[in-house]
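HUMAN: Quick job: go over this next protein and say how the chain folds.
***
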Amino acid sequence: MSYFDNIRTFVRVYELGSMSAAGRDLRVSPAVTSSRISQLEEHLGVRLFQRTTRSLAPTEQGKSFYRGATEILESVERAEAQIVNITENLKGALYVAAPLGVGRRLIAPQVPDFLKQYPEVNMRLRLTDRNVDLTTEGLDLSFFLGQPEDSNLRIRKIADVERVLCASPAYIAARGMPANGDALVADNHECLSLRFPGATEFQWRLSTPGGPRRFRVSGRYELDDGDVLTDWALAGHGVAMKPVFEVIEHLNAGTLVPVAVETPPEPIQMACLFTHRRMQDPKTRLFMEFMIERIAKAVRVTPKPS
C-alpha cells in the first residue's frame, strides 16, 4: 500500500471527520481506511487522531501534518495538471456540491455526458440545501443560489434566476388570492420557509413600485429541502418562493399558480464557487465551463400565458 494513498486517506479522514465517511468517499472499506491511518501513524511515530467509539478528532500533530499533507497533494495535482494540459487526458475525482433542486434538475442530468467525454474522470456529487465549506469538505466546485458568505473564495456568475411566489389552487380557494406582500403579512398567509442551521434570511425580499422591500412573513412550515417545500405547496399547505425553473412544470400544468404578483420576488444569482487552487486543475475548469453553458440555458424559462 503506497505512502501516497495513506496521505490521501488521512486528508479525507481529516476533512470529513470520520473513518467510515472517508472510506465511502475513497471507495475503500473502513478496515482499509483504518489500516492506512495506522500505517501512517507508525511511519511518523505519532498519533494523528484521538479515536473513541463515538468520536474522532485530530491531535496537534495531526493538525500540523494536515497542512503539509495538503501541500503534497496540491503539488501532485499541479504536476498532473501540467501533464493533462499536454495530453488532454483528464483523470481523477471531481468533488462537486449543489443545492438539491439545482443538482437534481440541472447538474445530475448532464454528468453522464461529461463523463462520457472523459472516461477517466470520476464524479463525486454532493446534493444539499445547506451551506457547504469548500475547504474543509475538500470540494473542487460548488454551485449555489444567492450570495456567498466567504469573500475569500472565487465566484463565477452563471445567471440571474427568476423566482415566483406560488401556491396550489386549493390553498387559494381556502385562503384567498393575496395581491402583494402586504396582503401576505396582513392576512397571515401560511408562508413555507426554506431554512437551514445558521440561516440568516428570515424575511422575503420582494420587488415593489417603490423598490425592493423586505416582508416579515410567517408560517408553521419550515425545512431545509427545497423539493419537499414544493410538495407542501402542491398539497395546499401554503405559499412558496421558488426559482421558476424548479416549478415550471407545475405552473404550466396549473397545479401551482403565481400569487402576490404585484410584488414578485427579486431574481436570485446562480453561480459557481471555487478556490484559486482548484481552478488550476483542468478537469475542474472544463466541468465548470461544460455546466455553465447548459445551466444558463436551462434557467431561462417562463410559464405559459394563462
Summary: The chain is about 40% helix and 20% strand. The two ends are 64 Å apart (CA to CA). The CA atoms of residues 158 and 293 lie 8 Å apart. The longest helix spans residues 60-87.
